[in-house]
Amino acid sequence: MKYLHFFLVLICLFFNNNTGFAQTNGVLDESFAPVIESEKQNPVTTIVKQTDGKLLVGGSFSMANDRPNTNLVRYNPNGTIDSSFQTSISVRSPGIKATALQSDGKILVGGFLINPANGFPRSLIRLNSNGSLDTTFVGSINVNFASSVDSIIVQPDDKIVIAGSFVSVNGVARSNLARLNADGSLDNSFDYAAQSIDAMVLQSDGKIVISEVTENPETTMTYKISRLNPNGSPDISFTATTGTGFGFHAEALKLQADGKIVVGGYFTQINNSSRKALARLNTNGSVDEDFNPILSSLFDSLPSINAIDIDAGGKILIGGLFVAVNGAVLKNVARLNADGSTDGSFSNQIGADKIVYSVLFDEDGKMFIGGEFQNYGGERRFRFIKLNSNGNADNSFSSRITSLGSISKIIIQPDGKTLATGSFKYVDGKEYGSIVRLLPDGKIDPTFAASDQTLFDSYQIYDFELLPDGKIIVGGWLSILGSSTGKAVVRLNPNGTVDNTFIPIETGDNAAFVVKPQPNGQILVGGAFKRIGGVSRTGLARFNSDGTIDASFNPVITTPDFISIVDLAVRNDGKILIGGYFSVVNGAEKNNLALLNSDGTLDASFTANASSNVNSIKQMPDGNFLI
């Protein structure tokens, strides 16, 4: 049996002056620059303010203020990007977890990082004040993909306390907690073996309060808040327990001026006192009974607190996942008085639409928040914003954190306009549903209305084709406004509106991966479906030009498990080459590649098979195929 082994990387350059993609000499056309952004949940997780008022913002993202900025960016006080800070930090999911400043202005970054020199994982780096990598920093965490530095404290003497998930530092055994000297070398005078640490805070006397998890031989997990002496030994005069079992941990710790500790996280009690997600401890670890704000979440689920900050007046800013505090509607961010009561001068009933991971008071009483949110106060606000003292968004601060989208297919129309689909939600700041049409200069074509009709949230276009009459056939997992069921194939008019003369095609169980019009106006549809258009079809079907099924075309494609037709091509003689994941076609063994006659019967003279999935088929001018 013959197998095809094709490994092909295609890089397509468009050298048509009308497209705007490139000049005829291959030089990038800088004037063609649409900003393509996705709606991926790439959050802001850390915000640190420098002494000059600039803000370091870290997380897992690729765009800041509509320009590429990878995972760490510095903002000027007015919300513009500080162009003097140039860095590019590659990350593993979930990205940067902690940032901290040393007294000389150098920047410590911890998290799930990647060494750009070799692609190996790393967990801790230091940057110079301009964003360049500080190669004099010798701190090295054991290298594996599970390692991470999640919390960083810089002591007044510039020693560095790090916590996270690691087993060694600079080749010396250290279990998830260590202290480094200012140059990154290990401080051997500090040693504490922790099983897991979620948060930590430094007291003025040099002691360190940590949120940790311990596990006994019976595998019962105990979540507690402990205090360590300056040398790392346990301070037995202090202890607090947030729960046993699984998950009831403290995620945020913040020290008050009086030495009390505000604790936030995911728990229902501390030291057997009922507390939901937020509590305050006295200096000996006992619960402060006078502090008991009541947080609530949707559907009786448990709220959580991910971040806490305290201003000079003792007010407490919290961020996390909740809908109300003390009965007042406050979504995911709130400000409390020092006694735990709700600060009535702070109001955000609409609030942030998704979780908040980082909060920070500014000296003027305004606040910064970062997280996964894409709306705040009912308006589009992306992941990092500044709030006025009353809780409203500060419109003078122009930040916007997003992620790059991707383009999977483009077609240049005869009039020079460009149709593009892919994984994106916004183009030049305007909301689009994964299909857009651009003018020759790269600007959005305002006459194309598809963004108002199709593809929101979890829906996706996998393929599309331009028809001779200018209409567009679209395949994927689609949603049309006003329809309660998902569609696999729809046809759009030349202006992007849905063509109601074409019956939208439903699969019920999966998407259409490829759509291919035939010269007679019929449309071949391939995918991972078992039913389409209301009839049984396994991965491949043909439809008439009005969207009705072609009952005469019914190849039977099977595998022991999952069937998928990923791509296909129609030869000049009308025969159809199909590729994907399958093993039998019309009763004959055919592995992932087969040739059908125009009526759907198998062409037995085509004997080639593919040893693995076929993802793309391209017919060449000479009639041969690239697979």
In CATH, the architecture of the domain at 3-35 and 406-626 is 6 Propeller
Low-confidence stretches: 1-22, 452-458
CA gyration radius, whole angstroms = 29 Å
The amount of helix comes to under 10%
Tell how many strands the DSSP assignment holds: 58
Arithmetic mean pLDDT: 87
By CATH reckoning, the class of the domain at 3-35 and 406-626 would read Mainly Beta
Terminus-to-terminus distance: 18 Å
Q: Which of globular, elongated, flat, extended, rod-shaped describes the shape?
A: elongated
Q: Within the CATH hierarchy, at the fold level, what is the topology of the domain at 3-35 and 406-626?
A: Neuraminidase
| Largest sheet properties | 6 strands, antiparallel
Any key phrases for this structure?
58 strands; 6-stranded antiparallel β-sheet; disordered N terminus; 42% strand; Neuraminidase; single chain; 4-stranded antiparallel β-sheet; 627 residues; mainly beta
Can you offer a commentary on this structure?
There is one protein chain. The chain is an all-beta fold and 627 residues long. Helix content is 0%, strand content 42%. It has a domain at 3-35 and 406-626: Neuraminidase (6 Propeller). Strand 8 and strand 9 (107-114) form a beta hairpin. Residues 1-22 and 452-458 have low confidence and may be disordered.
Q: What is this structure, in a nutshell?
A:
It contains no helices and 58 strands. It has 627 residues and is mostly beta strands.
